[in-house]
Design a protein that fits this description.
This protein is of the alpha/beta class. The chain contains 11 helices and 17 strands. Helix 3 runs parallel beside helix 5.
Length: 385
């Protein structure tokens, strides 16, 4: 990979952003052999075989979605979407699958989805060995919660298995005690040496304080701005719960996981105003989002966090560098640093973009929308001429 002289691709923009480099201003990204060789104002004078000018767009590292449901199998995850047609073209070049496969169907998932997708996919393996196949609650059968199988899967993994997905919502656990389910997930994660991607139960039968107390540093709480009972805010005071702050203080991370039911303006706005923004922003994109109008994607979700009070640069960081750190794929991903993989995303501001939470409540604010995507230096979406 030549670091000097002509490059294969030069992408210019009025604003180039990379959180880890403190880069935020006019410039360019120069690409050779699928990797970044220069970024920022100093890259503008590079001679290139192809130059793409994004004009008034912001050029970012490829977005990293910490919670989605990529699955190409016809009879795979009940939530699965084609990652290349639903996620990659919307700017998410790297995606973590939330439990779409378990230890029994892991090899099939790797072959049919991870191995055939342009999108870079990592997996939080389901606590159930059957993943999300079928139409029954995935964690209802306690016999399917096989720790030994998960450990064996982790031992023979080729680097795509990040951790373990567990959700204690009633629709997932069925009649099982959610505390017992979480205890088994922690047992598996400790044996397999991987963190949890954890969806907490929002019901009156189990307190969120008790669930959070069980989590460890490095575990990720998704659906963090969901409404309903046992959310992040204390019912009596409207303040972020002491248990939530204590969890963050000991290293537990908080992820958005927007989905169809898990983003409430009142929770997000109050938490951010009280100095409790999310660590990472994710979509929880699944098949019910296909064909939605407006499109459900990571640029729109991060736009909602900006509208809720999160500084724009912090929202960009929470969709690029920070989730890449959580997934342990820095500095190759989430960055425009020299030597990083040339995953790029160009976003253009639409002042009329519509923003709504999962209850349909709207907020003004406009929306960032994807106009350019590159993956490993290959242009996937080119801007309109």
């Amino acid at each position: 990979m030549s670091m000097n002289g002509p490059v294969e691709l030069l992408v210019t923009a009025n604003r180039v952003f990379s959180a880890d480099l403190g880069l935020d201003g006019p410039g360019a990204v120069a690409v050779n052999e699928g990797r970044i060789v220069a970024a920022g104002p100093d890259a503008l004078d590079r001679v290139a075989g192809e130059t793409i000018d994004l004009g008034d767009a912001v050029l970012l590292p490829g977005l990293v979605d910490l919670h989605a449901h990529p699955d190409k199998r016809p009879n795979g995850s009940r939530y699965g979407v084609d990652p290349d047609t639903e996620l990659l073209v919307r700017g998410s070049t790297t995606v973590l699958s939330q439990g779409d496969a378990g230890s029994t169907d892991l090899n099939a998932y790797k072959a049919s989805t991870i191995g055939t997708s342009r999108t870079r996919i990592l997996l939080a393996i389901n606590l159930s060995r059957f993943g999300e196949q079928g139409d029954k609650p995935s964690l209802e059968d306690h016999a399917a919660l096989d720790v030994e199988r998960i450990v064996r899967a982790a031992q023979r993994d080729n680097g795509r298995l990040w951790g373990i997905a567990v959700n204690t919502m009633a629709a997932v656990t069925g009649k099982n005690d959610p505390r017992r389910i979480l205890s088994r997930a922690i047992e598996a994660s400790e044996a397999a040496d991987g963190p949890l991607l954890f969806g907490s139960r929002h019901g009156t039968d189990v307190r969120i304080d008790d669930q959070l107390a069980m989590l460890r540093a490095g575990d990720v709480v998704t659906y963090c701005f969901a409404g309903g009972p046992e959310n992040l805010l204390d019912d009596a005071t409207g303040m972020v719960r002491d248990s939530v702050r204590a969890a963050r203080d000991r290293g537990v991370l908080f992820d958005v996981g927007h989905g169809m039911t898990s983003f409430d303006w009142t929770i997000a706005e109050a938490a951010i105003a009280q100095g409790f923004p999310p660590d990472t922003i994710s979509t929880d994109s699944y098949n019910k989002h296909v064909g939605s109008d407006p499109r459900h994607d990571l640029p729109r979700v991060l736009s909602k966090l900006i509208a809720a009070g999160m500084p724009e640069a912090d929202a960009f960081r929470a969709a690029t560098w920070r989730p890449a750190e959580v997934l342990r794929v820095t500095p190759e991903l989430g960055s425009l640093g020299t030597g990083a993989l040339a995953d790029l995303c160009g976003l253009r501001w639409n002042p009329d973009g519509r923003l709504a939470d999962t209850a349909g409540v709207t907020r003004p604010g406009g929306c960032w929308e994807p106009i350019f995507v590159a993956h490993g230096g290959e242009v996937i979406v080119a801007p309109d001429a």
